[in-house]
């Protein structure tokens, strides 16, 4: 069995999208907590000055006595230290969260006014559908997902059970849906599963209803690979410290080559760094490099993904690739006449502009495409 799953896999899809009310959204700005001596001193509530020779300057007793004699200076110093501590703690928490693909922001309430133009019946019956919804929750939306142990912690809210890989019809009537949304799901399943999902989305949408898809942009990734731009895979730091990579990879990602990072993001089970355990052969750096050098990019991408099979024990693996052109061609084949490229937070449909609910999964590497029935 297999199916729709939430994006808590490795790499940038590892962040659960659609966290309620914008408390936490995925970001493309990861990082570790780096502390300079001044930061550590601020945490301790003291200041540290550097002597020109590089050694710590000795304390100035007269300066200390002057500060002690001045209540105003003491109050000011205490206030500054308190602010520094608070700012440092915020940076530390954000830095730790970013290692797992999240950006902690001030709580933002979703804008219900964006739904004013929709019929009351559609709001009451929740005729807005999020496929592969995971943690997503909003009063007017219905989640569709497939229960797996791998994503059990992400699937905390009620959802309609739907297995994408089974190629079944969506459990929804014809011409009733206002909107369909799916974020970072289609890279986890086969072309056949995606085409069936899009055809079913077309069937359930009302005339004038819309669909919005977001997924990693394979064109961007391929360009980064060609330019040897390893910084593109910014999640490397998240899985390089002890305790972060052992259940997912064969080595810390800081030791992985750009060839393996590239292959892992569209054909996870074929690369040497994955612990999928599937019987498919693994490709070396030289094999990956030589094949992409000798073949057109689309042909090379297909060569690898056609060898992948969905593994229900590792549903977070990527087994597909998508560019704007490929997404648009699949939407057209499903019946949508004029699919178009969109952008983060940009949509012809007011509810989908609410970035406290949508487009929160790694916008730095994502593409966005919409279509109208």
Describe the structure.
This protein has helices at 37-44, 61-69, 71-98, 120-124, 191-204, 218-226, 258-264, 285-294, 297-305, 324-333; strands spanning 24-26, 102-104, 128-131, 141-145, 160-161, 177-183, 205-216, 340-341, 366-372. The protein is built from ten helices and nine strands. The chain has 373 residues and is α/β, with parallel strands linked by helices. Strands 5-4-3-6-7-9-8 form a seven-stranded mixed sheet. Strands 1-2 form a two-stranded antiparallel ribbon. α7 crosses α8. The protein has three domains: 11-29 and 105-217 and 322-372, Vaccinia Virus protein VP39 (Rossmann fold), CATH 3.40.50; 37-98, no CATH class; 219-305, no CATH class. It is globular.
Explain briefly what this protein structure is.
This protein is α/β, with parallel strands linked by helices and 373 residues long. The protein is 29% helix and 12% strand.
């Amino acid at each position: 069995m297999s199916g729709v799953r939430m994006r808590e896999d490795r790499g940038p899809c590892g962040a659960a999208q659609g966290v309620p009310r914008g408390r936490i959204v995925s970001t493309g700005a990861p990082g570790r907590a780096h502390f300079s001596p001044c930061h550590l001193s601020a945490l301790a509530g003291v200041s540290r000055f550097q002597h020109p020779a590089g050694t710590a300057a000795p304390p100035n007793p007269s300066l200390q006595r002057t500060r002690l004699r001045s209540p105003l200076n003491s109050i000011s110093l205490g206030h500054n230290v308190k602010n520094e501590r608070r700012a440092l703690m915020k940076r530390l928490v954000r830095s730790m969260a970013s290692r797992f693909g999240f950006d902690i922001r001030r709580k933002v309430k979703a804008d219900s006014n964006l739904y004013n133009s929709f019929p009351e019946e559609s709001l009451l019956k929740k005729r807005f559908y999020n496929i592969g919804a995971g943690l997503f929750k909003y009063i007017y939306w219905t989640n569709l997902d497939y229960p797996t142990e791998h994503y059990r912690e992400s699937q905390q809210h009620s959802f309609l059970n739907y297995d994408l890989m089974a190629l079944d019809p969506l459990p929804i009537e014809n011409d009733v849906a206002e909107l369909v949304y799916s974020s970072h799901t289609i890279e986890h399943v086969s072309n056949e599963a995606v085409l069936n999902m899009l055809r079913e989305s077309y069937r359930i949408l009302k005339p004038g209803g819309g669909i919005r898809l977001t997924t990693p942009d394979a064109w961007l990734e391929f360009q980064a690979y060609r330019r040897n731009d390893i910084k593109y895979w910014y999640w490397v730091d998240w899985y390089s410290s002890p305790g972060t990579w052992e259940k997912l990879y064969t080595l810390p990602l800081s030791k992985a080559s750009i060839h393996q990072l590239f292959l892992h993001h569209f054909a996870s089970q074929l690369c040497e760094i994955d612990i999928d355990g599937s019987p498919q052969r693994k490709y070396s750096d030289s094999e990956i490099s030589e094949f992409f050098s000798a073949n057109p990019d689309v042909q090379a991408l297909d060569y690898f993904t056609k060898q992948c099979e969905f593994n229900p024990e590792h549903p977070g693996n990527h087994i597909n690739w998508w560019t704007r052109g490929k997404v648009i061609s699949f939407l057209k084949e499903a019946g949508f006449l004029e699919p178009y490229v969109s952008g983060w937070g940009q949509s012809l449909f007011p509810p989908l502009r609410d970035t406290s609910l949508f487009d929160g999964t790694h916008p730095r590497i994502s593409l966005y495409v919409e279509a109208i029935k």
